[in-house]
Task: structure prediction
Amino acid sequence: MAEDLKAILEQQNSEYRDMYGFSDDIDYDFKTDKGLSEKIVREISKIKKEPEWMTEKRLAGYRVFTSKPLPKWGPDLSGIDFNDVYYYLKPSDKPKADAWDKVPEEIKRTFDKLGIPEAERKFFAGAEIQYDSEVVYGKVRKDLEKQGVIFTDMDNAIKKYPEMVKKYFGTVIPPTDNKFAALNTAVFSGGSFIYVPKGVKVALPLQAYFRINAEKAGQFERTLIIADEGADVTYIEGCLPAEELVSKGDSFQMIGSIKKGDKVATHTGKIQKVNKKFVHKHNGIMFEIVPQSKGNGFRLTGEHPVLCIKRNRVLTKRKQRINWNPEVSTKALLEQNPEFVKAENLEEGDFIVYVAPTSIEDDPTFGPIELKILGLYLAEGSITSNKALGGIRNIAFSFGKSKKEEALANEVNSLIHKKGWKSTTCRTKGGYYVVSSYAKDLIELCETNCGKGAKTKLLSQKLMMLPPLKQKLLIDYYWKGDGNIYLRYGKKLMRASTASKFLSYQIQEIMARNGVFANLNVRPGSEDVILGRKIVRSDQYIIEYTDERKMGEVRRKNNCFYVPIKQIKKHQFNDFVYNFGVDKDESYLVKGFAVHNCTAPIYMSSSLHAAVVELVAHKDAHIRYVTIQNWSKNVYNLVTQRAFVYRDACVEWIDGNIGSRINMKYPSTYLKEEGAKGEILSVAVAGDGQIQDSGGKVYHLAPNTSSKIISKSISKGTGVASYRGLLYVGKEAANAKSTVRCDALLLDEKSKTNTYPYMQVYREDANITHEASVGKIGEEQLFYLMSRGMSEEDAIATIVLGFIDSFAKTLPLEYSLELKRLIKLDTSNSVG
Result:
C-alpha cells in the first residue's frame, strides 16, 4: 500500500485551476497607474468625491505605510512589489446597482455563474458585491430598512452617514497598527458598512462577495460593523465560487435533468461524478457551434470554454481550394495539444474535440450470438402484443425481398435456434421475409438491452460499457440489417438512419471507440398524405461513415477526433441555462464534444488583498463574522481583523482559509468590559506551494470575561500551515476564562505544520487551558475504511471532513456544503 500511496502523492492536482481559473475581459472605466504615491492617494479620494477629512485620513495612512517596514516575523513577504500593483480599478462608470438587472452585463455574467442572485433570494437578508475596487451591487431587505438597519458600501456611508463613520473609522484598527492596515487606510475602496440599531436582531445573514479580476491588482476593502445595544447580526464574507445532451459514458441525458451525484464522461474519456449543479437565467446571446457532423451541433453561452485547436496554428502552404478554409497540416494538427477556448472566441474552421469514453466493464452475458441478435433487432426488430390472444407478446425481425435479405433472415433464425429458442421464418404476400418468435427469454434480451419502438430504441448501460470489440460486433450486425452503400464524389459511404435520437448518438460513440468517426445529420420530420390519410413523419437521424477515406478534415488522435467547425450561429436567448462541477476533470461531453466548467482568475503575476475589518459590539450585542477565503493561488492575503466587545456582548469569528499563495490573518478580540465573550474558530488548508499563517488573538481587559480559540489546519504536499496566536489577560481581568486548542493534520510526509502560541497572563485567578495535537492519516485508518467498501480517495475525504466537522457545523447549510466540497477537492490524491 505504501507504493500506492506514494504514487497518489506524486499526482498533480489541477482541479483548483480548472474550477476557479477564469478572468473576465473588462474595459475598466478608470485605473490608476501602477505603484503608490501621495498623488495617487489624492487621485483616489478625488474620484470618489470624498470630504477633506477622509482625504487627510488617507494621507496619514500613506505616510505610516511608507515609514513602516515589512514584518520580520511570519512568512517571507519580500516577493511583494508594491510598485507593480494597481491600487484602484473602477470597472464601471455607472452608480452602484440596487437591482440585479442593472449590473453591467460583463460583470453580472461572472456572479451569475456563482449563483449569487439566487443565493441572495434564498438565504440572505442582504447582499453586496465588490468587483476589483468598487462595489457594483448592493441590496438589503425592505423590512430591515424600516427597522433602521444600514447595510451599504463604505464609499456611500462616508457620504450619507459621515458622523457615524467619523466616530468609528480607524478607532478599532488605527493606521499605525501595522504596515498593511496603513496601506488599507491610504487606498481602501469599497467594503461594507453595517449598523444594526438597538434591540434589532437580523435573523438571516448579511453577505458580501469580493472578487479580484485584473492581473497585478490589489483589493483593499474596508468593513465596519456596529451592533448597538442588544443587537444581533451575522455577516458572511465569501469568495466562492438547457437542454443539450451530455454523455454519461453508458448513455446520453439532457443536461437539465442531470443531478449532483450522477456520473458523466469527461474530456479525458473517464467517467467522473458531478459534485455541484449550477442553474441561472441567461438573457443574451447564445452561440450554436455546428461541426462537420451537423447533427452534433450544440448551444452554449459565450464564456463557456470548448476544447479546441485553433486553425491558424496548424496552417500549411498548400493552395486553398474553392469554398474551403485555409489548408491545414495533418502533422501539425496531431502535434498540437488542445486547449479550452471560450465559445465566443471560436471561429469557423477551428477544430473541436470529439472524445470517445474509455471506461470498460465487460459482461460475459453477452457472447457473439447475443450481440449479433441484438444488432439485427436494433435494425429490423419489433415487439408487439396480440390482444386477441390475451396480450401474448411476439418479436419479429422484418427483412426485404432480396437474396441478401433472405440470407439475413435465415441467419437470425439460426442464431435464435442456437440459443434453444423457437422461431419461424415466413414470406409475406409482398415477398418480404419475417422471422417471428414467442420466446420470452429472447423478447426479454432484446427489450431489456435495446428497448422497443422505433423512436425509443436505446442501448442499455451494460451494452455501452462493453469492450470496444464486442460493441463492434453488435454494430456490424446493425449495419448489416440497416445500412446501405451510396456513392459520393466516387467514394463509397455507409449510411443508416434511425428515428431514435439517443440511439444515433450511442452508435456514433461506439464507432468512435472503435476508431471510426461517423457523421451524424438530422432530416427533419414532415407531414405527408398516403392513401388519403395524413401522416407525420418523424425526424430521422442519419449516420454515415466510410472506410475508403477520412471523413473530410476529421483527424484521429488516440481516443479523440479533431472535427472542424462548419458554422457558428448566434441566437437571442432568454431562459434558464445549466452547468455543473465534475470531480477531477471539471469537464463533460456535450453530444460527444468536450466543454469545460470553470468559475477566480489565476495569473502568473501576484495580486494583493489587504483588507481591514473593524467590529464594534455594544452592550448585550452579538456579531458573528464568517469568512470563507478561497482566493486564487497567486494572491497575497494580508488582512487585519479586530473587534471591540463591550459589557455582556459576544463576537464570534468563523474563519476558513483555503486559497491564496500566502495567507496572514489573525482575527482579534478585545474584551473591554465585564462579561464580554469572544470566540475564534478557524480552519486552514495549505496545499502545494501555499503558506497558511493564521490563528487569533484575544485580550482580556475586564473582569469575568471568557474566550475560546480553536484552530484546525490541514497540510498537503509542500504546503505549510502555522497557528500563530496570542492570549492576553490583563491585571483588571479578574476570573478570566479561556480555552485554546490547536489541531493539525498532515496528509503526507512532505507537508509541514507549526504552532506559535503566546500567552501573557497577569492574573493568578485566570482559568486557562491550552491543548495542541499533530496527527497524520495512517495506513491503518485507510485500511479500516477501505475494508468497508470505500475507495482510497473517499476514505481520505472522510477522515479530513471528520477533522473539520465542528467548524463546518457553525456555517449556514449552503456554505457548509461548499466548504466541504472545496476541502475535499483541495486534499484529494494527497496521502503518503
About this structure: The mean pLDDT is 80.
